[in-house]
Amino acid sequence: MLKRALTWQFFFLLFCSSTVIALEDDVLAMRPLFTKYSRRSITSTEFGEITAVEISDGSTGGTYQLQFITLEPNSLFLPVLLHEDMMFYVLTGSGSLNWVDEEGVTNQIDVKRGDVFRIPSASFFFAKSSLESTRERLRIFAIFDNANNAHELSVGAYSRLSDLVLGFDWKILQSAFKVSPEMIEEIKSAAKLPAILHVPSKNETEQTKWQARIIKALMGSGSYELNKKKKTKIFNFLKAKRDVENANGWSVTVNKKDLKGSSFGAFMVNLSKDSMMAPHWNPMATEIAIVTHGEGIVSIVCSSSTYESSSDCKNMRFKVQEGDVFVVPQFHPMAQMSFSNDSLVFMGFSTMAKKNYPQFLAGKNSVLQTLDRDILALSMNVSNKTIDRLLSSQSESFILSCPSCAEEEEAAMQEEIERERQEEEQRRREEEEARREEEREAREREEERKKEEAKRRQEEERKRQEEEQRRREEREAREKEEERKKEEAKRRQEEEKRQQEEARRRQEEAAKREEQRREEEEAWRKEEKEAREREEKEKQEQEARRRQEEEKRQQEEARKRQEEAAKREQEEARRQEEERQKKQKQQEKEEEEWQEQEEEVRRQEEEARRRQREEAKWEEKEASRQEEERQKKQRQEEEEARRQQEEEARGQEGKRQERQKEEEAGRWHEGQQEEMKAKRQERERQERQRQEEEEEASRRQRQEEDARRQQEQQEEETRRQEGKKQERQKQEEEEEEEEEASARRQQGQQEEEAAKRQEGERQEKHRKEDEEEEEQQQEEEARRQERHRKEDEEEEEEDRRQHEEEVRKEESEEAQRPRGKEEQEARKAEDEDRGRREQPETEEEAARRQEEERQRKQRREEEGDQGYGGGGEGRRALRNIKRIGHYF
């Protein structure tokens, strides 16, 4: 089946590309697909909306507007004046449509799902949706034709009544209606209502009244009553007799006979899963279709031999879904395919209402069947045998079975899109490369020109700069000479000022150092006295502090022991609580496992019931499928018998003279055929009965297998529950053993804690002894360090006085020197700068020297302590000796 469908598609494309003649250039501008997201919104309110698309038929230059009108339950579409004929199809919901034609005749029809009707142009038209229990919206597809009108589509398909009236000036309205200016002003100042409104529910009498008021307002007099309505016949797709119907789908066509006065035709096609409308074309009209259900693939062939080399006209395939609009121009072969997961339903309008029969390429009614086989074989460049096999393979007509055709077409479409995208990218890359090459050459030419221009400007600039440089150098030389003279005079003045300032500063520093020395000596004596008093006081405070700390430490140790005992009790209580919570969690876990087991049993039972339901459904589907196959075989047999009868009739017509002689033989032959047919039917019945018995045995075997598996699962579940029960018992025994071990561990921990407590008390006693000894050593070390610090301070003070004395001596010698020349002053300034740069190194050496002096002094003090017998008197004697030495 799949191979045959692919063969037909290939043949369809090959034949269309070589035989069918296309139309003029305007076909190239036709747009084939309008998705539901590309619709233009005309009006939208909470009670309904209207969207539209503009469509070109691609042949005669005609344009059509397709509108999608949606009314919520109990909503009103306000009156409009139709500019063109309006043909509409009701997709869902129900309601009433009212219009007044050019002769003033009032018309009203009740519409429902599947209705198709036409309202002529120049009619006032309005619609109201019904308030149904299901609250289903009234959805209408309406097409407007302006092909026979002289005005352009830009005028619109219709005009609102309020726009017609309020468009005039107030003076014209006052004269035309003979009313007061206040009334005209009230009308013109009223707010403009939306095109769709909600109307409250009313009874039939009240509805008739407001309809009469609308008609009266439209026609301008009271002579037009609602009783002038005509009885109008409405065509309904869903109730009409279907033109084509088989297992693959059905189709219905509406022509001029059913829609009097309409320039449009209408059609509806329902393709079952894995089906295809056979390749065909419309020789008289363009088809505009809207998908009402499902998804599918539409394949259109650009069959023009005139434009086969043009890139604007090419074969196309595209995917459609519910709400999409697709257009197929006149003479363009097409095929529609449904997917394997859902059916495809679409309705549409043809641009010519008179009878126009589609021409099919495949099936029993193929136009190829009318052509001579030899001519057809030459046209296809194949053998007659291939043509015979091609035309005799398909026994169905119009709607064919085509498994996975839509999926394969979609895959091919995706590959084609990807290939076109790659080609487009390659073309863009080549164009971009050519453009970059042109830009590069243009840049090179421009750069060459700029280089020449820059070189010329550089030469001129160089000459100008050389001249300016020469003038600038001369000017700078003069300025430098003047600046040098000014700097020389300024430097001499600053040097004199600096020397004076330096001499004054040295005198002030000498006086300040002398004053500071006297103050430091006084402070040193005072500090020495205070240090002795402070040392005695610190000793007393340290002794008192030590006693307080000892008492505090004893109290702290007692508190810690109490806290440790309380902590141990809390730890034991917490452990017991954890044991209790653990047991509780274990019990909860066992309850959850038991609930899970019950849930698993319920799930298995539910699964078994579900499998039984699925098997019952499968058996029903299998029975339905077998019944369909039986009916299909029966139809084929009847068709075969009818064809044989026709062949026999033609044979009898061609041999009229031999009919009497062969009449007996013909009857005997017919009897043999009927007997053979009866035998064949009996064999088929027996074969079907045998298949049913085998299927019944297979079904019973599956049920027994499922029952056996379910029993095994229940036994397995019982064993698992028994194992869990034994595991819980074992776990309880382990918990009891763990509690006994815990009690033994607790007793051992208490004995161990008592031993640790005794060991801690012993260590605490030793620690206190060590701390007391360490405190005594620290106090002794602090007294020794304080003594050394004071001696270091005294030596540093003595060194500082000696250094100041040397500085004063140098300053007095320097003041007595005569002032030298400018060169000596310059050298002196350089020496001072060098001294300032070397000052960090000098300070480092001084610090190192002081450290060495301190160490030597410390060694001398140790030796002096040993020589003088230690104590304060020996140290004071040593300091007196040092002072005497410094003095001399």
TrEMBL record:
Q: Where is this region: Disordered?
A: 409-888
Signal peptide bounds: 1-22
Q: Which UniProt keywords apply?
A: Signal
A UniProt-annotated Pfam family: Cupin_1
What does the record list as coiled-coil region(s)?
A: none
Looking at the keywords, is Electron transport present? no
Q: Where is the composition biased (Basic residues)?
A: 877-888
Give the domain of life. Eukaryota
The record's SMART domains line, in alphabetical order, gives: Cupin_1 (SM00835)
Q: Which positions fall inside the Cupin type-1 domain? A: 34-185, 235-388
- From the Swiss-Prot or TrEMBL record, give the protein name: Vicilin-like seed storage protein At2g18540
To which species is this protein native? Answer: Nelumbo nucifera
Gene that encodes it: LOC104595747
